[in-house]
């Protein structure tokens, strides 16, 4: 009983095909003690038998062609019958060199007993070859113990394969779920990043965020066009931050701010002594952008000579530092931005057409602020919160009269102008105070009012008529109060309303 339990326990230990095969070899070596033994199992394609065994006490491993029926193990697999060869004939008729050498090592005085290994369903799952003297092989064959052992092995092999298959499927399922979770998390991260840094709920703002999320996923060049101050660099940085290159450098160069004779050295770098004043080697921006993103701001102002050199770099990703006779490689994505109408510059010969097409593999048009005026309130809140955090101050709300002025203003300087205007207003507002027109210098107020009077408004930005009427009414009363230096009686008379009505409106509309 104890030996049977020990045998059963040893059978539970192997957890893969190799370990189970080694278990079978160990059992055969211990209890049958043949001159040699070989276990062949088909590999996943079924074209080969992966064989493990012993020649005496020496481990053996070889691969046999499953359809080479000139060798005994493949023949037994084909016939699915037990066969005995009383002698080996030195392996002369065997094509496989490794198997022929094994037969030679066993010697012609030994024979071969080959048995198919069935699984629980009786399906063939391998073959066993035992080398020994012919009379011993016949004795083992007639005893029937080997067939019982192989049935145990075959059934356990099926269980191990099923277990491994389930483990692989479980691993693949976990990997798929993890990939789905990672992709979902990446999408949430991208959406949060875009919402936080590209503020606005207008149709134009949502479309711009969708464009960035889509284009960020590939490595094509991107051309960003839009008016000055509209946020082209913000879009470029978001393209980088939402891309697979986010953890690599974002390198920016303003092509309009660098003198023509320095652009090449800034982009490609130089070696010591390349020109007068080159006291040491300098790495160029193209090299610094390796693995990341190279942002060419105001690319429309790049000189023609430099455009040709840039085109070659974009096509080959190779560049040559000044003073060097060797080319260097840099893997980067290029994003370009300009407020210039490049198609007109191409037509006028001021910008290379081939470079334009190379940069314009993807294109983003950043809308002007006047085209998404409904975002002004959200942008203002965002900027005011940022200024408060920076200055250590806590601001109240943006008062309606000032918001009405901002909504009526055309903002030729776009988002940058709005940000600067609110920065001035915050600087002139006390901690805890609301931000109103009185926080702005007179020259800025005059500009806002004059522009509001001159601008032909199509009112497309209005999303809430009641709110728009309140804002307009507040702006009118605030302007009239400034005109009459706070004299409410004269303001009421000029607007043909009662003083009490004016007081009520000032309280309701938060006008002071």
Count the domains.
Answer: 3
Walk across the major sheet and give the strand order. 3-2-1-6-5-4
Any guess at the CATH architecture of the largest domain?
3-Layer(aba) Sandwich
- What structural class is derived from the secondary structure elements? alpha/beta
Mean pLDDT: 86
Number of strands: 15
Beginning-to-end CA distance, first to last residue = 101 Å
Main sheet attributes: strand count, strand direction, barrel closure = 6 strands, antiparallel
Number of helices: 20
- CA radius of gyration is 41 Å
Going by CATH, the homologous superfamily of the largest domain would be: P-loop containing nucleotide triphosphate hydrolases
Strand residue percentage: 5-15%
Helix content: 40-55%
Low-confidence stretches: none
Which descriptor suits the 3D outline?
elongated
For the record, the CATH class of the largest domain is Alpha Beta
Domain Sigma-54 factor interaction: 198-427
InterPro entries: AAA+_ATPase (IPR003593), AAA_lid_NorR (IPR058031), Homeodomain-like_sf (IPR009057), P-loop_NTPase (IPR027417), Sigma_54_int (IPR002078), Sigma_54_int_dom_ATP-bd_1 (IPR025662), Sigma_54_int_dom_ATP-bd_2 (IPR025943), Sigma_54_int_dom_CS (IPR025944)
Organism: Siccibacter colletis
Keywords: ATP-binding, DNA-binding, Nucleotide-binding, Transcription, Transcription regulation
């Amino acid at each position: 009983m104890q030996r049977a339990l020990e045998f059963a326990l040893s059978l539970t230990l192997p957890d893969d095909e190799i370990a189970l095969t080694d278990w079978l070899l160990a059992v055969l070596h211990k209890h049958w003690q043949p001159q040699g033994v070989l276990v062949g199992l088909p590999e996943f394609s079924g074209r080969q038998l992966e064989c493990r065994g012993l020649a005496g006490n020496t481990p053996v491993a070889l691969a046999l062609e499953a359809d080479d029926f000139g060798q005994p193990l493949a023949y037994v697999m084909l016939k699915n019958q037990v066969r005995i060869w009383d002698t080996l004939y030195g392996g002369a008729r065997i094509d496989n060199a490794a198997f022929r050498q094994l037969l030679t090592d066993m010697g012609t005085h030994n024979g071969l007993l080959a048995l198919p290994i069935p699984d629980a369903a009786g399906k063939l799952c391998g073959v066993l070859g035992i080398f020994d003297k012919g009379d011993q092989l016949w004795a083992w064959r007639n005893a029937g113990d080997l067939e019982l052992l192989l049935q145990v092995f075959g059934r356990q092999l099926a269980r191990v394969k099923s277990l491994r298959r389930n483990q692989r499927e479980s691993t693949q399922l976990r990997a798929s779920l993890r990939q789905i979770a990672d992709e979902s998390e990446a999408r949430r991260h991208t959406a949060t990043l875009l919402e936080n840094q590209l503020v606005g709920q207008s149709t134009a703002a949502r479309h711009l965020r969708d464009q960035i999320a889509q284009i960020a996923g590939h490595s094509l060049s991107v051309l960003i066009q839009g008016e000055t101050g509209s946020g082209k660099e913000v879009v470029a940085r978001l393209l980088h931050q939402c891309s697979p290159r986010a953890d690599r450098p974002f390198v920016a160069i303003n092509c309009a701010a660098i003198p023509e004779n320095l652009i090449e050295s800034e982009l490609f770098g130089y070696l010591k002594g390349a020109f007068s004043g080159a006291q040491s080697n300098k790495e160029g921006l193209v090299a610094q952008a390796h693995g990341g993103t190279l942002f060419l701001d105001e690319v429309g102002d790049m000189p023609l000579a430099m455009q040709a050199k840039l085109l070659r770099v974009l096509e080959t990703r190779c560049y040559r530092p000044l003073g060097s006779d060797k080319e260097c490689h840099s893997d980067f994505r290029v994003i370009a931005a300009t407020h210039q109408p490049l198609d007109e510059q191409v037509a006028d010969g001021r910008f290379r057409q081939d470079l334009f097409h190379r940069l314009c593999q993807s294109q983003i048009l950043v809308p002007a602020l006047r085209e998404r005026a409904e975002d002004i309130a959200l942008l203002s809140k965002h900027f005011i919160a940022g200024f408060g955090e920076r200055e250590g101050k806590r601001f109240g709300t943006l008062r309606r009269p000032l918001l009405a002025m901002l909504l009526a203003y055309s903002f030729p300087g776009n988002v940058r102008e709005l940000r600067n205007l609110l920065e001035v207003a915050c600087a002139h507002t006390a901690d805890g105070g609301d931000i109103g027109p009185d926080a702005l210098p007179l020259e800025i107020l005059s500009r806002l009012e004059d522009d509001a009077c001159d601008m032909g408004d199509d009112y497309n930005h209005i999303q809430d008529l009641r709110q728009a009427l309140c804002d307009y009414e507040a702006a009118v009363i605030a302007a009239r109060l400034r005109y009459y230096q706070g004299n409410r009686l004269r303001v009421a008379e000029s607007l043909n309303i009662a003083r009490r009505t004016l007081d009520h409106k000032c309280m309701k509309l938060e006008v002071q």
